[in-house]
Amino acid sequence: MKSKNGRPVLSLDGKSLTLEDVGNVARRGYEVALSDEACRRVEEASAAVKTWENSDDVIYGITTGFGDLATVKISRKDRRLLQENLLKSHACGVGDPFPEDVIRAMMLLRINSLIRGFSGISLAVLNQFVAFLNLGIHPLVPCQGSLGASGDLCPLSHLALPLLGLGKVRFRGRTMTAAKALSTAELSPVQLGAKEGLALNNGTASMGAMAVLALLDAESLARAADISAAIAIEALHGVPFPFDERTHALRPHTGQGVVARNIRRLIEGSEIIERYKGGKVQDAYSLRCVPQVHGATRDALAYVRKTLEVEINSVTDNPLIFASDGVAISGGNFHGQPLALAMDFFGIALAELANISERRQARLVDSSLSGLPPFLIENSGLNSGFMIAQYTAASLVSENKVLAHPASVDSIPSSANQEDHVSMGAWAARKGRMILDNVRRVLAIELLTASQGLDFSRLLRPGEGTVAAHDCIRSVVPYIRHDEYLAPFIERVEALLVRGALVECVEEAIGPLD
Known about the structure:
This protein has about 525 residues and is mainly α. It has 21 helices and nine strands. The chain is elongated.
C-alpha cells in the first residue's frame, strides 16, 4: 500500500513490527497507518480511563501524582492539567538533539506500543502522533537526560510536547516552534485527558530506537569486517588452513561457522593464497582467529536482535489498562534492563571488531612482520605512508575500551528513592552508537591499508570476493605512491561503509554473505 504522496505505508498492529520496518520508517520515509483492530483496542482502553478519571478510585498517574508523589491525590478538576504538567516538567533534557532517523524510530516505537490498547491513550492524540510521523514533523529531543527507568521519561516528554503545540520541531528543512509547525500543517494542538501524558512519556522508545538503528548498522558492518579481514589476510600472505570447514564443525558456534564460510568464499580462487600457503604452518591470531573473534561478535548481535524483536512489540508504560477486566495494574515494564544489558553486550562485542582489526593494521605497516615495504609506501623515510593512520585506529580502539564499560552496573537512585534502581539503558544505547562509529572508522582505515598492501602482490590475482572489495575501494581511493592528505581518503572509505556499498559490491560478485 502507498500513501497519496506515493510513499510505502506500513500498517501497525502493535505485534508484528520488525527491525527492518523500523529502518524503513526511520530512514526511507515509509508512512504508517493503524489497523482497525488496533483502533478498537485503543478506544476501549481510553473509555475505561475516562470512567476512572471521574471516580474517587486511587489509580496511579490518573488520580494520583507521579513517582514519589504517588501518595498525593489529585482533584477531579486538575486531572487533565496533571498530564500536561507531567510533560512540561519532565522535558528537561540537555545536549545535542537526536538525529532525524532516531526521532522517527522513537515515534514509531511509541506508537506501536500505544496501539496495543493497554495504555489508555485516546485515538485523537494517537492520530496526531501518526500525523507528525507521516508529515515529517520531527520534535527536537535532547540526547541526554534518561536514566532508563521509568523508561525514557525525559526524552519522550520532549517527543510528546509538540503534540500540544509546545517545544520545537524540524519541519520541511527548518527548525521552528511546534505551534508554527502545527499551523503550517493545518493541525490543532491536542488536549490531553487522564493518563495520556503518562502514556506518552513512560516507556523505552528512546533507548529502543537508538538500539534498533545501531543494530541494523552493526549487522552490515560485521559483514564488512569479514571483507576487511579477507583483504588483510591476502595482503599479509596468510594461509587458508584456519578457515577449513572441518575445524569449525568441531566447535559449532553459529557465528564462528558463518565467518569462516564468508572468508572461504571471499578468498576462493586466490593465486596469492595458493602461492604462499606452503611457506608457513600458521598465522598470528589476528588472522588465524578471525572466525572465532568475528563470530563471537555475530552471536552477540544475534542476542541483541532477539531482545529488540521482543521489545519493539511490547507495552512498556505504567500503569497498564486491562479494560476487559476493569483494572489498571501498576508494574515495571518501563524498566530498561533488558535493553541496557543487550546494548552493553553490543558495545563490548562490537569493540572487538576494531580491536582485532587494529592488530592486523599494525602487522600491515610493520615490515618486519609483513614483508611489505615499511608503512606500505614506496621510498619510505621521505614518505611516512600509513604510519599515523594506524595511530588513529589505535586511538579509536582505546576510546572504545572506555566506552565499553557497562552502563547497566551503574544504577543511581532517583525520585526520592521511589525509583531506587534504574537501568541506564539510554546511556548504554548512546555509547553503543559511539562505539559503532569508532569501529566503522577503524575498519575504514584497515580497508585503506590492506588494499594498499594488496597492491604489492599485483602480479598475483586475489580471491574473487577480495578482488571485488579491492576494486570498490579503488573506485574512491587511488593507490598511494607518495605521502598524501589521508583524512579525505579515510572519509571516502567510511562513506562506502555507511552506504553499505562495499558489501553490495562484493555480494554482486560472489552472492550474498552470511
